[in-house]
Amino acid sequence: MAASLMGMSIRVMTYDEIASEMGLKPASARQLVRRNGWHRVPGNDGRTRVEVPLDELERHIKDGAETPVEAEETSTADAPESPFEAPLITALSNHIERLERALADAETALSAAAAERGEAQLEAASAREASAQSRAQIDVLSAQLEAAERRAAELAEDRDRWHAAATARRSWWPWRRTG
């Protein structure tokens, strides 16, 4: 309002509008408003309105049109190398090539290690399966062994009983036998 009282023409804009008009980011537009001390008015919609002097707006628009960002980037890329930069660029390029070769070797080693890991996992799975089969076979054989030991114990008892009956002393008189 102070600018309008002094006879300067102003335009009321939001931060986003300022950023788009001047080719800035919204954070840069906020900083520009703070730096220049332009009057800010909070709006009902939650957006802040800024009174921007038209001469400042026109100056920033002209500055942005005269030096586009792409032109600045291409001008620095086409700049001739100084004699001090050439060996440095060559050394860095060689170092980058070495690093790329090392990366390719590491990726090859990684893929080989992954393949070996896959093979080892398959071998481990087959070994676990064989171990499970062996355990099942051991359980069956243990049950058969226990059954055979029980049968052997029964036969030993039967043998001992018959041996005791055969070796028991008998009287020579058949009618005097008891039992």
UniProtKB/TrEMBL annotation:
Protein name per the record: Uncharacterized protein
Keywords on record: Coiled coil, Plasmid
Highest taxon of the lineage: Bacteria
Coiled-coil residues: 89-165
Region Disordered, residue ranges: 61-84
